[in-house]
Hints:
Residues 126-224 form the OmpR/PhoB-type domain. The protein is of the alpha/beta class.
Amino acid sequence: MSKILIVEDDMQLSNALKTGLEGYGYQVIVPETLINIEEVFEEVAPDLTLLDVNLPYKDGFTLCRLFRLKSEAPIIFISSRGSEFEQIYGMDIGADEYIVKPFSLQLLEAKIKTVLRRYQIQNIKNIEVQYNGLVIDTDHFKLYYRDKETTLSRNELILSKLFIANPNKIFERYELLKALWDTDIFVHENTLNVNIKRLKDKLATLEYPYSIRSKRSVGYYMSLGDGMDEN
C-alpha cells in the first residue's frame, strides 16, 4: 500500500482527497498543521507527496526544494496557480507532475498511479536485485542462485527485477507491457506470455524455490507460496 502525504492548507479539500484516495487503496496522511511540515515529511517518509503552492509559513516551491534534499520520492503539485511558467518551474525544481485545480479525483488517481509506476521501474533499473539467495547481475544479464547461473534476455532481465524486488505484488498485464515496450505501438499479449514462460523456465532450471504465477484476468506476480496461486 503506497503512502501519500497531502500538504494542503484547505482542510476540506485535504479530507475529501484523503477519503477518495483511501477508496483506491492508498494510505493517506493529512497533517493537522503545516508549521512543522518538514519534520512531518521526514517522519512519514511518504511514497508520494501532493503539494499545494500557496501555503502559510513556506510556499510549495520552497518545500519542494527542501523535500528533494531529503527524498527522491515523487511529488505532484496540486495548485490553482496554473500559468505555464509556474508549471515549468515546478517541474524544474523537482516535481514529477503539476495538476491545476480544479481537477477530478479520477484524473488525480491516474496521475498518481503513473508517477508511482514510473518511479518504481526507474529505481529497479538502477540496482542489483537480490532476494532469498537469487542475484541478478544487471551488467552481464546473468541470474544466479547458489552454484547455478543462467543468461537473461533484455526482457527477462526487466521482468526479473520487477518480480524479484516486489514479491507477491501483482503486476497488471498493461504494466508489464509498458515496462518491456514503452511505446504506443501495439504489442500482442501473447508476446508477454512467451517472455514470462521463458523466465519461469530459467528459474526452474536454477531450482529456485519460488516461481512466477498468474492471477486470472489481472496479471502476474512472484509467488511466495501463500495460497494466492492460480497457475
